[in-house]
Design goal:
Blueprint lengths: L2 H15 L6 H18 L3 H16 L4 H13 L1 H10 L1 H8 L12
Helix pairs in contact: 1-2, 1-3, 3-4, 4-5, 5-6
């Protein structure tokens, strides 16, 4: 699989991971399907990092360079911690990814 194809699969899988709505059985099916595709095609968490970051940024409503740069670093460092912060709300996510010494809004504490 070439790089372009791999990116397309990552975008599809990330979209399923962050799909909202539907029943819990639909969500479980999407999750199972995305895991099967990743396993079958050998897609790693590293391969998925950008697509996951982009889906989170779109859902939070901030696709600025500053936010996405911080978010990709956080996703690559500890994806589960980013998911936990995301599920707690956008303010918690911003605080989680904020550089040390800032208030999560780009300003000093």
């Amino acid at each position: 699989m070439n790089k372009k194809e791999k990116l397309a699969v990552c975008e599809l899988v990330a979209g399923w991971e962050f799909s909202v709505g539907g029943s819990s059985s639909e969500a479980a099916a999407r999750y199972s399907c995305s895991n099967d595709i990743r396993e079958t095609l050998g897609i790693t968490d590293e391969d998925m990092a950008f697509s996951r970051m982009w889906e989170i940024a779109k859902l939070v409503g901030d696709t600025s360079d500053e936010f996405t740069d911080l978010l990709i670093d956080a996703v690559e460092a500890d994806y589960q911690a980013v998911i936990d912060a995301f599920e707690a709300g956008p303010a918690v996510l911003r605080a989680h990814i904020a550089p040390t010494g800032t208030n999560g809004k780009g300003g000093a504490e």
